[in-house]
Amino acid sequence: MMDWTDRHCRYLHRQLTSRALLFTEMVTSAALVHGDAERLLGYNDSEHPVAVQLGGSDPIELAQAVRICDRFGYDEINLNVGCPSDRVQSGQFGACLMGVPGLVAQCLVAMADVTDTPITVKCRIGIDDQDIEADLDRFADAVLPTGIEALYVHARKAWLKGLSPKENRDIPPLNYDRVYRLKQRLGDFPVMINGGIKSLDECETHLRHTDGVMLGRAAYHDPMILGVTDAKIFGEKRAPATLDDIETAMTAYAEIDLGKGTRLNQITRHMLGLANGLPGARRFRQILSVEACKPGAGPEVIAAAFAQIDRSAGVRVA
Fold first, then answer.
1. Are 23 and 88 found together in one domain?
2. 195 is in an annotated binding site
3. Is the entire prediction scored with pTM above 0.85?
4. Which sequence positions are flagged as catalytic?
């Protein structure tokens, strides 16, 4: 979710669910050690619980990055060993690290040595010509002894040779059963499943076999799915947030953040799916996409967009 789950996105999603663990977009260890940590890691306290996701392959540099993350008080630090983008391949991190589980283990040991914050790993079921049975087990056996507290497993291979990052999200077939078998093999160790999951009904099915479910594109493009997550998945009795609640919260948020130099479209670009399936959704998206980009655009644009929605029709949840 690089370039997607930034702090504005996470603030919106936290208005919809108080229980789901939110993840940052992946931040490279090199960028943290040599760049502007506040810009890369700053977030709103209301985002908790929130995990920071790191990319890297140098144990010493990753340890330095973890120390920096700890200054910001994240609830979890996740090492990404699943992203197939061109950037991670050229930098020798992300999914290509599944081919060198020993190096991943060294990185995790170095990270754990400098923090008490839970360390977790996100991976694929394999890469390229790997055997998804033997090689995934070999990977798990290498990283579990380092003291990590969970594995998040995207139930697709990543084809680093021949497929683009976009194609890697759709073309390799999903194999949820392989993740289930990994969970069975690892017993009480927490295994979370990810990849192509589109609804809370699907989440409930996966939760019969795994310890958790990670949503990516489904939650981003149809964020109202998160609005009923606390009730359906976590058993909360409180009423879900309404569109009125979200409008109020995001308007107030924009008023504050615009004063810090943020442009309105940096906030509203994450809100386009809020009205999916409702009368007025097209005009809602148009206002947030076009008017929010204009110089001087302010919170009144958010109010104008929400005014287009016929809220009496209810809210569709995938």
1. yes
2. yes
3. yes
4. 83
